[in-house]
Each structure stands twice: as structure tokens, then as C-alpha cells.
């Protein structure tokens, strides 16, 4: 992908899920879950959905002190 900066030279695909929390009435990005894969096309829509569910559970369980 143009402009992609891989952390590891063997990375061939990547998926990034934003970690968003509510601060008052505003959604704030506080980080990302960033996974790399050595295989090209290593992630699909099922992976995305599962990781988004994981991030939502993480957001709900952690006491974010901002």
C-alpha cells in the first residue's frame, strides 16, 4: 500500500482497528490495535469484525483515566 510504513520487513498485510472512547459526548481516539501478517491478504472481513468486537469489549472493561 502506498505510504505504508511496516514495522517489520516481512509484513505483507496489516489490519488496524481504532480504539475509541466517549469523553462526555465526544468520541475520542486513544489508540489503535495494529496487527501485521507475513501473508499477503492475511486479514478478511471476518477478522475485522472479530477484532472490532474485541476492541469494543476492551473499551468496556478498562477504566480509562483521561
Catalogue the unreliable spans: none
Number of strands: 2
Determine the fraction of residues in helical runs and give it as a percent range. 25-40%
Beta-strand content estimate: 25-35%
Overall geometry? elongated
Main beta sheet, described?
A: 2 strands, antiparallel
Q: Can you describe what's shown?
A:
- With 66 residues, the chain is of the alpha+beta class.
- The chain has one helix spanning 45-61, and strands at 13-23, 26-37.
- Helix content is 26%, strand content 35%.
- Strand 1 (13-23) and strand 2 (26-37) form a beta hairpin.
- The longest helix has 17 residues, at 45-61.
- The model has no long low-confidence stretch (mean pLDDT 89).
Could you provide a short overview of the structure?
The chain is α+β, with helices and mostly antiparallel strands.
List keywords for this structure.
66 residues, two-stranded antiparallel sheet, alpha+beta, 2 strands, 1 helix
Q: How is this fold's topology laid out?
A:
Elements: E1 13-23, E2 26-37, H1 45-61
Antiparallel strand pairs: 1-2
